[in-house]
Amino acid sequence: MLKMNWKKTVTTVVISTSLMTTSFTAIAAPSADMNAESAAAVSYPLNDTLSVELKTVLNEHVLGGTRLGVVVRMNNNGAAVARVPEYEVRMKTNDGVEYTLQASAANPKSIQPKAKTELSYLAVVDRTDTVTLAEVNWTDVDYYVYPKKETLMVAVPISDQAWKGADAPITNPAMIKKWGETFTIPSLLSPLQFQPLSIDKEVTEKGTVQVVQLLVTNPTGQRETLPEFLIDGKSDSQVYAGEKIAQGAAASAVPPAAGEAAGGTAAAGSADTSGAAPAAANAAAAAVGATGLKKADSQSYSGQKMEQGEIILEPKEKKYVHYAIATDNDTALSSLTVLTPEKFAQAGGQQTSYLVGRLKVLLPDSTARTAASSYQIGQTMKFDALSDLIHPNLDVSIVEFHMNDNEDEGSKSVTAKFKLFNKTDQPMAVPVFQTDLVSSDGYTYTGSRQNIAAQRILPNSGVVINYAYTLPASETGSGLIIRVNDTQKAAPYKTTIASYGIGLQQPDTNESFDVYPFEAKVGYWTITPMFNRRGDMTYSYKVRFDLELKRAEQVQLDPSFSKLQFEIYNSTNNLIGATPVSFTGANRLVSGENNIMLNATSEQLERPLTVKLYEVFQTPAGESKRLIGVYTQ
Question: What burial class does residue 519 get, using C-beta atoms within 10 Å of its C-beta: 0-12 exposed, 13-18 middle, 19+ buried?
Answer without folding.
Answer: middle
